[in-house]
């Protein structure tokens, strides 16, 4: 099932997307619950009744989780070729331990970074001159858990969406902790919607990114160094994962820092990310106004 958070008539709703018919079927949810977006569905024994369909062209698609309840968990260097390109870049504070990590590298982005597909991503030249893109599959947690075993991990997954882990590389290199370089305002485009766990074969899913139509990343989730069960087991060891938590699973090779010279983003650039079975996340980068 493909599910979107959307607005119509100034009211936030959640509904099932039918792309073939070009419609969205709103779920019968109280406005106070729908305000949270997709988390309003998580934990329910039954899917709410669907209301009359609305044409997709009439609604404004929002991020699946417009404001996560806490930081987005992220995994660094989780595709072999990207691990090597990042280690060569000179911005990798973990490179001394080897290009390919022996355990998942975990960092986070603050909730306020989230913006929907089609929203502008803001570049502030007074803060950073090295803005990069990272196409990523993101996991949405559906069932709470602590000390989750890898073999039980998928029982805790509600579904998946797309994230662009936008990064200020100069800030990432300046500080040994990545939070500031990853958490600039608007640095987490998410969407356009989410799919439920059974909707795609997550062990073999294509992932691509384009900058101004130029193919930059072209990979597959089967090439992850640490798979989703390993990631969930690692994060939940002593830390309780909660419904609605988002985990970005890492980006493949082809990011701007991997080119010589680096191909950083500038105002006017458009980044398009495709993940098979989910959809297309596309955002234009614009200079921030004072």
Automatic annotation (TrEMBL):
Organism: Labrys wisconsinensis
Residue stretches making up the Fumarylacetoacetase-like C-terminal domain: 72-285
Lineage: Bacteria, Pseudomonadati, Pseudomonadota, Alphaproteobacteria, Hyphomicrobiales
InterPro entries xrefs: Fumarylacetoacetase-like_C, Fumarylacetoacetase_C_sf
Domain of life, per lineage: Bacteria
Statement: the UniProt record of this protein carries the keyword tRNA processing: no
Protein name per its UniProtKB record: 2-keto-4-pentenoate hydratase/2-oxohepta-3-ene-1,7-dioic acid hydratase in catechol pathway
Keywords from the UniProt entry: Metal-binding
């Amino acid at each position: 099932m493909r599910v979107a958070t959307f607005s119509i008539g100034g009211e936030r709703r959640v509904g099932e997307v039918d792309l073939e018919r070009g419609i969205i079927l709103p779920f019968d949810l109280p406005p106070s619950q729908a305000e949270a977006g997709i988390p309003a569905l998580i934990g329910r024994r039954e899917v709410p009744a669907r209301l009359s369909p609305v044409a997709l062209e009439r609604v404004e698609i929002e991020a699946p989780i417009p404001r996560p309840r806490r930081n987005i968990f992220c995994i660094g260097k989780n595709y072999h070729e990207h691990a090597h390109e990042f280690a060569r870049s000179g911005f990798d504070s973990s490179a001394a331990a080897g290009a390919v990590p022996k355990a998942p590298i975990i960092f986070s982005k603050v909730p306020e970074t989230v913006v929907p597909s089609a929203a502008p991503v803001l570049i502030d030249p007074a803060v950073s001159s090295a803005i990069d893109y990272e196409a990523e599959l993101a996991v949405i947690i559906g069932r709470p858990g602590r000390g989750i075993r890898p073999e039980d991990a998928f029982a805790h997954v509600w579904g998946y969406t797309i994230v662009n882990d936008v990064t200020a590389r100069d800030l990432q290199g300046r500080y040994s902790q990545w939070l500031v370089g990853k958490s600039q305002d608007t640095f987490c485009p998410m969407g356009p919607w989410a799919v439920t766990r059974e909707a795609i074969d997550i062990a073999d899913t294509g992932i691509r990114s384009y900058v101004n139509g130029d193919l930059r990343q072209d990979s597959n989730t089967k090439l992850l160094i640490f798979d989703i069960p390993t990631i969930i087991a690692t994060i939940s060891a002593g830390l309780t994962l909660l419904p609605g938590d988002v985990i970005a699973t890492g980006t493949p090779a082809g990011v701007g820092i991997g080119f010589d010279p680096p191909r950083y983003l500038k105002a006017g650039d458009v980044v398009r990310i495709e993940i098979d079975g989910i959809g297309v996340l596309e955002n234009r980068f614009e200079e921030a106004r004072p």
